[in-house]
Design brief:
This protein has about 375 residues and is an alpha+beta fold. It folds into 2 domains: about 70 residues, Phosphorylase Kinase, domain 1 (2-Layer Sandwich); about 280 residues, Aminoglycoside 3'-phosphotransferase, Chain: A, domain 2 (Alpha-Beta Complex), CATH 3.90.1200. Strands 1, 2, 3, 4, 5 and 6 form a 6-stranded antiparallel β-sheet that branches. Strands 11-10-17-16 form a 4-stranded mixed β-sheet, with helices on one face. It has a 3-stranded antiparallel β-sheet with strand order 7-12-15. β13 and β14 form a beta hairpin. The radius of gyration is 22 Å and the shape is globular. Bound molecules: adenosine-5'-diphosphate and magnesium ion.
Amino acid sequence: MTADRRRWRIGAIRRATRNLFLPLDANGHPLLIKYTRDREEARQEIRGHARLLGHYRVPALHAHLRVPRGHLLAYERLPSAPDRGLLLDLLNTETVTAELQQYMDDLTTAYRNVILETAQEAPPTDVVRKLYWDRAAAGGRLDTYYRGANFPVADGIVDLPITRLAEYVLVANGQPLVFGWTATLRRLRAHFQGAKSVWAALTQGDPTDVNLAHPLAWLDYDTAGLNSILGEFANFLWYITALGGWLVPTYNRAAFADHPATFAHVEANWPRLHRVYVNHSARTIHVDYTPQLCAPRRAAAAAYWNLLVQPIADKLWPDGNLAELLRPYLAMRILAVYNLADLAPVDRLLLLVRLAEVTGPTFDPVTFFTTEEAPCLAP
Ligand SMILES: Nc1ncnc2c1ncn2[C@@H]1O[C@H](COP(=O)(O)OP(=O)(O)O)[C@@H](O)[C@H]1O
Ligand SMILES: [Mg+2]
């Protein structure tokens, strides 16, 4: 037996979002012990991991064990270091690197193949429901966040209760939009109550910058299984363009503690609010802003759109309107990750404007995700 194979070492415990992680070298094998308190989530994760095996590159799950207040999962530990090991790290650069381009090629190729192999029309009862159907259902996040709530649109900037926004025309970068808060919530609840089948395929289901490892591998499996393909697309695109560069590093700093370069780039990914003007007699609210996004995130969103969303859509929805198809999923990502009432007024206003754009008749996902250059505002 070599000295290396006999080596045992225990690292420091680390907290990611909700779970605890313990790096451990056992007989020279790098392991990561994940401790999760939620039994049901652990069960989903074990099942999800098994479903992805053979389709996506995932670290081995060597063992799992029920323990008094939770569950232990022993994974093969992939190489990582500060600011290394995740897709996130490839996005925290000044320019678009060849490494990022290669990564996006590999990522979209893997997804295209598995999605086309496993695509099926499934009733919504048969797909993973956590991020969309459960959140829109009675007692889900939409309810716990917003039932009976009437917070200001943006305290000190637009001092109007959110339910009265429908009485005004919201003019976003010169584009008049009518946005009803109550009607939007009602439509979303109704959409995710419907029994109509959805196109679904085998995916990991929560493709965030921190759940995608570099070199390419998939982490975090509690939503892995048969997922709505449109939900998968909305999730990736909203994370790349809003959550990963702007909202999560602002509101959940701890999630990115091992990737501190993220914080230096928030400024470049934060939409710029230029002017807000409320005219109560004309019932208009003018908001001028630029949806800023750094070049690597724009390139990743563009690659994902061109190499994955568009080719899959051409096959599955040849006559479909992608804006209409993506709308309810994207609206759920905007509303049901963070409670808008908990965010700083400027962020809440920017998200409400983005939501009004998504629900409006002129929504165009290509420009929305700034995969094309954002229109420049007059100085
Ligand atoms: N097998 C692994 N090897 C290396 N790092 C990992 C592994 N699994 C998870 N991680 C690291 O831990 C972070 C959180 O893991 P994840 O399983 O997504 O937990 P959570 O369910 O808390 O989001 C990941 O973003 C990654 O940085
Ligand atoms: Mg995760």
